[in-house]
Write a structure and sequence with these properties.
It contains 4 helices and 2 strands; from the N terminus they run H-H-E-E-H-H. It is mainly α.
Length: about 160
């Protein structure tokens, strides 16, 4: 999905290889203070858009849940109507038919003896958070585990001016 150019600064929709040129030209036009504002407003605009998208996703998830619930209710009521009238199937003009059927039973495992199940079917997982802390504290030998540090590229932070 692309940002609409009419609502987004050019910087927000530019390919990576064009960003430096945009920033240089903007600095020439408005100076360093203007460039700072341009970058800051662009990032704020993108953060605002991300928030709007999150709210839209939440609204769509609620709508999907409501639609799923309504679909289940309609299916149950149609099933009840057909069953109460002794009808197995009804045919339509454009929909081939609606038919009653017995879905396959759902199977759920209930564990009675957890130890026995773990011995035969269990899987070992490592608590990496606790292990990382233990390595940092020097509690774990280097023959057992090591901590690999991956350095991230330097980034920027937007510092908003405090209003009075």
């Amino acid at each position: 999905m692309e940002l609409k150019t009419q609502y987004a600064p050019r910087l927000a929709i530019a390919p990576r290889d064009e960003i430096a040129d945009i920033l240089v030209h903007k600095a020439e036009d408005v100076g360093s203070a203007g460039l700072t504002d341009y970058i800051g407003f662009t990032l704020e605009s993108m953060q605002d858009q991300r928030e709007r998208i999150k709210f839209a996703i939440a609204d769509l998830q609620m709508l999907l849940k409501a639609t799923d619930g309504q679909e289940k209710i309609i299916k149950a009521e149609v099933r009840n109507l057909l069953e109460s009238n002794g009808i197995d199937s009804i045919k339509g003009d454009r929909i081939s038919s609606i038919t009653l059927f017995n879905p396959a039973p759902k199977k759920k495992v209930s564990i009675i003896d957890k130890e026995a199940v773990l011995q035969e079917y269990g899987k070992l997982t490592v608590d990496t958070t606790a292990l990382k802390k233990a390595i940092e504290n020097g509690d774990v030998s280097e023959e057992v585990a090591v901590l690999e540090v991956e350095h991230q590229e330097q980034s920027i932070k937007l510092n908003k001016r405090k209003t009075v």
